[in-house]
Amino acid sequence: MRLSPLAVPLLLAGCTSLPWSQDAASGTDAGQPPLKVPAPAQDPGPVVHEVAKKPAPPSAESLGKAAAVTLPSSFLPPPRASEYQVWRCTPAQDLLMAFSEGDAEASHDWLRLWSRRHAYTLERVVSASGERYQANAGASPAEKASGGVKVLPGEEGLEVWFKGSEAMLQNARGNLECVQDDRRVIHPTTQKPLLVAQGNEPGWQVSLDSEHNLLTLTAMQGLLESPHEAQASERSAEAEAGARSSGVQVVKLPYRVAREANDSRVLKAQLPADGKQGEPLQLVVAPGACFDSMQGAPYPLTATLTIAGQELKGCGEAFRYQSAVE
Predict the structure, then answer these.
(1) Distance CA 220, CA 247 (A)
(2) What is the arrangement of strands in the sheet containing 280-291, beginning at the earlier edge strand?
(3) Of 299, 301, 261, 306, nearest to 279 (Cα)?
(4) Are 313 and 199 in contact, with CB atoms under 8 Å apart?
(5) What's the pLDDT score for residue 271?
(6) At residue 120, does pLDDT exceed 90?
(7) Is the bond leading into 91 cis (omega within 30 degrees of zero)?
(8) pLDDT, tens digit, for every residue of 154-200?
(9) Spatial distance between the Cα atoms of 83 and 248, rounded to a whole number of angstroms
(10) Per-residue exposure over 49-63, b if at least 16 CB sit within 10 Å of its own CB, e if not
(11) Is a pLDDT exceeding 80 seen at residue 201?
């Protein structure tokens, strides 16, 4: 269909009645307020996340008042044990043993055996002759098969058969023939510290308080001196003909347990300002047959004292207290 020339103006005229035609022509709308464009948002800046503050380390005073470290059973002799026994074995190996002394309430006796690096608990079992002890004797076959029983290196199949002053030790690795050689009497008493460790050349001793996290270090004079102080002491020694060699230094320090690896205990402390200022002290104690480097006396613990990077070896002994775990 074709529109006539007259119809075109009429159609355009009709368009002027559309709502937006007047706005487009006048550029304003008298009936409504002008449109407000919001201002651009201000830059909030970088997002800062608050970092949780680390708790402040305990003060020396609070450490010194804390309860004493808890000792594992492998540090301790059996209840009512009267002595440490030394057994020399072939092939060459030295073992330390301590036997419980049963009473009317005990269903069986047992012993604790220390090798160079481990401590084992063995229970007495029925034997046709002599005395026979086995590790994990009370565990059922199902517990052993399921892995529910923790087995230490060398403990699998561990058994000791005593006949007088001789013993046969066997495990999954082989056999040892042993003879009793030495002994040292155990004196359990509440008057002693929780633990004592000591070494020689230079002489030192660390004892742990049985109630609080406090250790007492007794050391030959010079061990706790700074290099400058040591040089001054040497010059003084030349003039005094070695008078300083007889002296000792004693300090009491709060300690903390830095970490625990298996049955060992790692204790750390800080030397006072009048010694090696700011220098750390660390004592590592672990179960293991140990023999004094001068007298050969047997001990059930190995000890390593580190002072300002200087490592000193020694032995130790723990005493049975209510705070210790058996």
Answers:
(1) 6
(2) 248-254, 214-220, 204-208, 195-199, 310-318, 298-307, 280-291, 265-270, 256-259
(3) 306
(4) yes
(5) 86
(6) yes
(7) yes
(8) 888 899 999 989 999 999 889 999 999 999 998 766 667 999 999 99
(9) 31
(10) eeeeeeeeeeeeeeb
(11) yes
Tokens representing 58 are: 């305990």
Closest to 222 (Cα-Cα) out of 201, 205, 242, 247: 247
Q: Are strands 265-270 and 83-90 parallel, antiparallel or unpaired?
A: unpaired
Mean pLDDT for the stretch of residues 137-143: 55
Q: Are strands 174-185 and 248-254 parallel, antiparallel or unpaired?
A: unpaired
Place of tokens 């929780």: 194
pLDDT for 45-54, tens place per residue? Answer: 666 666 666 6
CATH code 2.40.128.200 for 80-185: yes
Question: Taking the domains of the chain in order of start, what are their residue ranges?
Answer: 60-71+188-236+244-318, 80-185
**For the chain, how long is the longest CA-to-CA vector?**
140
Q: What is the pLDDT of residue 79?
A: 84
- Give me the helices (H) in 51-120, please: 60-65
What pLDDT shows up at residue 246? 52
